[in-house]
């Protein structure tokens, strides 16, 4: 099993328990060996096959010959005053990705990246600077969570939730994202509850329908950022490929199929999409839908010329939505002092290494 990230041995974290069971049988070993491997990977969280001490040495050598561990080298690590930790990880091919660990009073959440860069082109986001370099493998996404869990291990704490809201569009790396998700919720893995995981998409319509049919309890969030087709196309070029109405139809299908609430992420940009008329139009579109709006004060990105919406205007936007019975909250900002918005740290790193 080769993948696009490397031409050598596949990453052990790329495999599901069932695939490892098949592989161990092919090696003439009992299927329970796969469960032991999974335990070493996700519960004991070792970094080498040699550490898997309850496996026979010849079998460990077979593992060494067949697989490799994901190497995430820590290029940078910043800790915010609020406890948020942002990592810039180097990959084996010299690309870099970001991962964020957020500490809440209800638990620890990890925001993972699914692609190196992004091709969606949202005009307010630093992730798209430099375009898309490649997809991550399932194991490279898994390794981000495991690395954060290792940071928490000495504190006897655990990762309790995951948001797939880092750089990249997860639904353009659909198969790897779904495999990562299944490994995260597996009871023999990190055993994170599906309802504590949220995947966010910019509106890749075919994958949204596919996700609706997955029969999973994993939450879905949509980056909407505008109440109509014309404005959304200016902010999000992907809207020209999958227009506003098609995205809304896919969301309605998802809600009807799953009975689950959808979260709409709406980045408020000063003077662009944050006026009372935008709030009223958005409320009219969403009224009666099983949904929740997460209002996000936009992060200042030097390469983009957007300003943050004034605080009073944010509250007024929320008030208008709620007056029309659309549930809306304002995202609590975390890591603002350490450039914790998607792509900011990687953009600085790219500038330093290429400039």
Describe what this molecule looks like in 3D.
The chain has 2 domains: 12-66, DNA polymerase, domain 1 (Orthogonal Bundle); 73-354, Aldolase class I (TIM Barrel). It is 36% helix and 19% strand. The longest helix has 15 residues, at 138-152. The two termini are 37 Å apart. The model is unreliable at 1-6 (pLDDT under 50). Helix 4 (138-152) packs parallel to helix 5 and helix 10 (276-286) packs parallel to helix 11 (311-323). A 10-stranded mixed beta sheet has the order 1-2-3-4-7-8-9-10-11-12, sandwiched between helices. The chain has a two-stranded antiparallel sheet with strand order 5-6. By secondary structure, the chain is of the alpha/beta class. The protein is elongated, with a radius of gyration of 21 Å.
A few lines on this structure:
With 355 residues, the chain is of the alpha/beta class. It has 12 helices and 12 strands.
- The fourth-level CATH homologous superfamily of the largest domain is Aldolase class I
The stretches of 5 or more residues where confidence is low (pLDDT under 50) are: 1-6
Structural shape: elongated
In the sheet with the most strands, the strands line up as 1-2-3-4-7-8-9-10-11-12
| Major pleated sheet | 10 strands, mixed
Derived structural class: alpha/beta
> Any idea what the CATH architecture of the largest domain is?
Alpha-Beta Barrel
Query: How many domains make up the 3D coordinates?
Result: 2
Q: Order of SSEs, N→C?
A: HHHEEEEEEHEHEHEHHHEHEHEH
Total beta strands: 12
Q: Treating each run of at least 4 consecutive H or I residues as one helix, how many helices?
A: 12
Distance between the termini: 37 Å
CATH fold category name of the largest domain: TIM Barrel
| Strand proportion | 15-25%
CATH top level assignment of the largest domain = Alpha Beta
Helix coverage percent: 25-40%
